[in-house]
Design brief:
about 140 residues; alpha+beta; Pathogenesis-related Protein p14a
Length: about 140
């Protein structure tokens, strides 16, 4: 889909940047006693088309319950365990190092889904899109 169609479908994002074109929805978040304005959803554009989307926790009590409702075809959502995602998608055990422990990637044709769990347990971000776009393997 094009950026114009994405805006019509999902609304106007709070911020877009160039190179790569990344548009994001943002919300005030309260973390460790501080208020910040964090992205919680967005899309990457290449050649005028959306090539990947990303959702993540906003650390905002009005937004996070809505984000958890978004699920993959196998029922994985923000807050799911990384072990559950690996099991449902038939992925082997994680490789060593931080990157191998915190990420799980599902490839199906030229489409990739990346699950990210920075503490190695709870999924805090999900990216879906064309493999090779926006950091997707």
């Amino acid at each position: 889909m094009t950026k114009a169609k994405a805006v019509k479908t999902w609304g106007k994002p709070e911020h877009c940047q160039d190179s790569p074109l990344w548009c994001q929805f943002r919300a005030d978040s309260h973390i460790n006693g501080f208020t910040t304005n964090n992205p919680f959803a967005g899309w990457y554009v290449k050649g005028g088309k959306i090539v990947a989307i990303e959702i993540e926790f906003a650390e905002n009590t009005a937004i996070d319950p809505k984000m958890v409702k978004l699920k993959t075809s196998k029922g994985i959502h923000l807050g799911s365990s990384m072990a559950d995602a690996r099991s449902k998608y038939g992925l082997g055990p994680p490789s060593g190092g931080e990157a191998g422990m915190s990420r799980a990637i599902v490839k199906k044709g030229n489409r990739c889904t990346l699950f990210y769990a920075p503490a190695f347990t709870r999924i805090e971000a999900i990216q879906v899109g064309i493999c090779g776009a926006a950091g997707l393997v």
